[in-house]
Amino acid sequence: IMKQKENRDNKSFWDRIAKLYTRIQEKGNKQLYETLIKKIEAHLSDEQSVLELGCGTGQLSLPLAPKAKTWLATDFSECMIAEAKKREKSSNLCFCVEDATALSFDSNRFDVVLIANTLHIMPKPKKALEEIHRVLKTDGLLIAPTFVAEEKIHRLKLWLMKRIGFRVFHSWKLAEFKAFICQNGFELLQCELLPTSPWSECFLVARKINGTVGKGSDFKEV
């Protein structure tokens, strides 16, 4: 049963590459992360409590945590969190293991939830949005940079990534992704398309809307 679950959520892949993840991101996505850091910090203040989901080994956590009051960085991979804890961190930053689709935190706890480049590689992103909506305070912010298939996908890169075990569960177009966020209890504040490869990056910021979370849409797996 455990093996079947890992196959569904691809957790074994992320555990397997955890020791190499920091080097991979610093080598391959340095420019993108520098851009994301600048855009994200524009929405942060030293009065906010921030929850980060899918933090990896801290690519965004480490530079951004000093901009907030508290920063709780989480990932569902124990191996990723173990690697993240080895890196230099600020006093207001804490790393821990959490499943984004079943968070252990009280409702209405956080001012900001950051989930970067993660929703499209989750089998059940709607469940994650429901949990994010629950733990956010009234008018809390969702910051969700996500890769979308808005422009022509670099299929060779995608094929190579699949060969090593990387899986994409949802290939949203930009309009589909925006609709998905809005249908699940959020109001868009900012949406900007950033050029990158093999997909484009949608930098999205939304505000929590109180009330019943709507029915999310299902999109194809690639």
Question: What does this entry show, briefly?
Answer:
The chain is α/β, with parallel strands linked by helices and 222 residues long.
Give keywords.
222 residues, alpha/beta, eight-stranded mixed sheet, globular, disordered N terminus
Q: What would you call the shape?
A: globular
Per DSSP E runs of 2 or more residues, the count of β-strands stands at 8
* Helix content, binned percent: 25-40%
Structural class: alpha/beta
- The number of distinct helices, counting runs of at least 4 residues, comes to 8
Strand content: 15-25%
Element string (H = helix, E = strand): HHHEHEHEEHEEHHEE
* Quaternary: single chain
Tell me about the largest β-sheet. Answer: 8 strands, mixed
Mean pLDDT: 86
Q: List low-pLDDT spans.
A: 1-7, 214-222
Task: Return Rg in Å.
Answer: 16 Å
Q: How many angstroms does the end-to-end distance come to?
A: 24 Å
Outline the structure in words.
With 222 residues, the protein is α/β, with parallel strands linked by helices. 36% of the residues lie in helices and 23% in strands. It contains eight helices and eight strands. Strands 1, 2, 3, 4, 5, 6, 7 and 8 form an eight-stranded mixed beta sheet that branches. 36% of the residues are buried. The model is unreliable at 1-7 and 214-222 (pLDDT under 50).
